[in-house]
Structure formats: C-alpha cells, structure tokens
Prior knowledge:
CATH topology of the domain at 2-96 in chain A: Rna Polymerase Sigma Factor, Chain: A
Number of domains of chain B: 3
Oligomer: heterodimer
Order of helices and strands of chain A: HHHHHHH
Largest sheet of chain B: 7 strands, mixed
Distance between the termini of chain A: 31 Å
Structural class of chain A: mainly alpha
Helix content of chain B: 25-40%
Number of strands of chain B: 19
Shape of chain A: elongated
Radius of gyration of chain B: 25 Å
CATH class of the domain at 2-96 in chain A: Mainly Alpha
Radius of gyration of chain A: 22 Å
Order of helices and strands of chain B: HHHHHHEEEEEEEEEEEEEEHEHEEHEE
Strand content of chain B: 25-35%
Largest interface: A-B, 71 and 64 residues
Amino acid sequence: xxxxxxxxxxxxxxxxxxxxxxxxxxxxxxxxxxxxxxxxxxxxxxxxxxxxxxxxxxxxxxxxxxxxxxxxxxxxxxxxxxxxxxxxxxxxxxxxxxxxxxxxxxxxxxxxxxxxxxxxxxxxxxxxxxxxxxxxxxxxxxxxxxxxxxxxxxxxxxxxxxxxxxxxxxx
Amino acid sequence: xxxxxxxxxxxxxxxxxxxxxxxxxxxxxxxxxxxxxxxxxxxxxxxxxxxxxxxxxxxxxxxxxxxxxxxxxxxxxxxxxxxxxxxxxxxxxxxxxxxxxxxxxxxxxxxxxxxxxxxxxxxxxxxxxxxxxxxxxxxxxxxxxxxxxxxxxxxxxxxxxxxxxxxxxxxxxxxxxxxxxxxxxxxxxxxxxxxxxxxxxxxxxxxxxxxxxxxxxxxxxxxxxxxxxxxxxxxxxxxxxxxxxxxxxxxxxxxxxxxxxxxxxxxxxxxxxxxxxxxxxxxxxxxxxxxxxxxxxxxxxxxxxxxxxxxxxxxxxxxxxxxxxxxxxxxxxxxxxxxxxxxxxxx
Lengths: 171, 347
C-alpha cells in the first residue's frame, strides 16, 4: 500500500516535472508535435508498466530519453514490418488464394515480429540460410547452391542461427 | 569468456549449440542421417532436463515459422517477402557510400517514408524499394544508373571484383557504367545477367526473370539447379540489343525481338507499349502500377491482344484507353481499389 502510494506520487512528480521537456525533446528529434506527444505518452505508460524501475531513478531525464529511444526503435520496426507486409498482401491480392482474414493478418504480423526479433543480429548468410531452409523449404544442398557455399557451411550457418534464436527465445 | 564466473553461461550456450546441431541434423538431406539424428536427439534430450528445455525452445520456434509458412497462401508469401527484405544487409565495401546515397535519394523521393526511415534501425533498410505507383532513379558511386519501376526492390553488393545488384522484386532499368575490371551482375533466384557496360531492363516474374537488352550486349545465365539440366549451356547465352530472353533456373530462352528505342522511350515516359500483347499481360502490368487491384479472369480474356500505348502513371486513363480500343471489354469500378475487367460479349 505504502509502496503503491509512493510509486504513484513518484510518477506524478516525474510526469509534472518532465513531461513537457520530454515532449519538446521528442519534437526536436521527430519534427512532428503530434507523434512527439504520442511517443511521450507511450514512454510514461511503459514506465508505469515497469513499476519497480521507477523507485530510485537518479537521472530522470536520461531515463526518460533512453526509454523513449527504445520505444522509437520498436515503433519504427513494427511500422516497417507492418507496412511492408500489407504492401506485399496488396501486391498479391489478385492471386486465386484471396485475401487473408483480419485474424490471419494479425497472427501473421505477430509471428513476423517474433521471428524478425529472434533473427536480429544474425549476419547475412546465416539469416538467409535460415529463411531459405525453414521458410522456403529448400534442402541443405539447395541452400548451399543459392549461397555459393558448401553444404557443411550451410549446416554451420543453421546451427549459428538456431543457437541465436535460442538465446532470444529463452529471455 | 575465460573467467570461472561465466562458466554456467558458457555451458548454457554450449547446450544451446548442441541442441541446434541436433535440430539441424533432423532436417538433413539424407534420410539415413535424419533417422540417426532423431534417435540421437531423443537420447540427448533424456540426458538432462536442460537439454530437453533447450530443444523445446528451438523446436517451438521452428514450428512457429512452419505455421507461418503453411498459413493462407497470400499470407505466407507476404511474410516470406517481408522477412527476406528486413534481414541484415550484406556488407558492401566500396559501395557503402553509394548504397547510402541511393538510400537517401530514394527516401527523399518518397516523402511518406521519411518519418519512418529517419529513425529506423539501419538493418531494416536492407533493400531499396519503390511502393506501388512510384518510380525512382539514382546514380551509384560507380556511375551506374538504376531506375526502379513501381513496386520494385533491389539489394546492392559491390566488392573489389564484382558489382552485384540483387533484384528482389519488380523491374529495374540498369544503365551500367563501364568497368572492365568489375563486371556487374543482376541476380535473381532464376539466374543472372552479366554486363560490362550496357543498358538493359531486368524484370522478375513468377518462376522466371526476363531480360530486355536496349543497348550493346550482356550474358544471361541460368541458376542451373543441381544436376538436372542436361545440355544447358553453362557458359550462358549472349543477348544482344533488341533481344529479349527468359531466364529460368533451368536455362535461357530467347523471346521475340523488341524495338530498343520504344522500350527506352516507354521507360522515359512511363508508358507501356503493347504491341500485340495478351490483354492479361497488359492488365498484370497495370496492376503493378496501381495502388488498388484490377481483377480479371485470365482464361476468359485469353486470345484478346492489345495494340496500344498506355500511360502507366495514370492507370485509370489506361483502362479507359483499353476500353476504346477493345469495345468488347467491360470495366466495372467496385471501389477505388477494386476494378473488375471482363468481356461478357465473348462468353
């Protein structure tokens, strides 16, 4: 109870002291007051969601900007994925299979974000090897031909990709 | 890595690596290896709860990827395209600056992307692409000029010995700057086009890549899938000005000749020059330039050929022009985004 009250008042202080400042910082970065206000709002929401981090923030502004920057990166990635995906769907719309349902689209977008997250940080060839094998269903030998490497190398790339996936998934 | 304190972390990574090795063997090309791996993997998982857990993490992820692959057709295709496009960018060397310049040019040419791209992680900008209905031209550092048609995407990989343009989607006009020491390749999964200093158009279609030579000549080479291409010319086929070639993974086939000047003009003026082209092909082309979609039944339109010059930057007008030259056609606008074309009189 005591803790809840103190978090709330902490939050209030953080908000009243720095919200305006964060908005103008974001506005300078983004060049759009509207998006800046949105992102500032989301930043505070994210901080509220991770309550314990709030107690004992020494440098509130640095903390705010770090959170906001992370949010911007996430947002940009999500938007980019979503846009690219919807554009791809629009391109394929005339094919016989028809348009996926909203439910399908939502699930695909979630899967896309997860997969893309897990594969982040891989270098080019392991990344391509993973997609060619597990997504496109090419055999190890076929992947080897595409990447102009040996089958043994393809297996090395795949092990590398899966080990990386494991690191991300277990967190 | 060397201190005792990180020991548990190392062994965890080592377990993950072992699990990954087993999982990779599970989908080896040879059935014997696969069944040996299945048995070995099961035994390995039983050895330790941590083993089983690592295996579960990895297999769970793969099954999610497979679920995407096997979901609704259009869906899976789009997911695949997005993942391929948002992957890491192959490291260019000399071309790094050129890539940046081109990325910048594309961004400036496409204001709607600007906000998005200005704060997106660089690896997500792996390819250079144009949205539907937009074109973009740019000059690379080596002087090569690229013009991306509507809804097209390329990756650039330049090295000391080779300039590679990977055509991911759509169509690109390449005006190759002459460099005898560094041939330029345009690559697709179907094969590649090698040039030293020429002008040509490469376009990706389903199952094939079509090369149209405007000037000089280039070498077209099929990807030659493994051993099943007996008698195919592994050295490639020389395609000269005015020639078109269809490249599939199995070989290169020369198509009917074209008039290089009209192809060049069409690109310059963003026109589609249809000289006895099947209507379905022409509608395909208009679709590529339209934010919405034109629906039609390919079988019903079979046998209808088009002789027309159509504006690609105004597909509504293009449809009107089609209607004037082909009175049997019916064009119905359902919404701004869906137009249905059919020929009821012919049924």
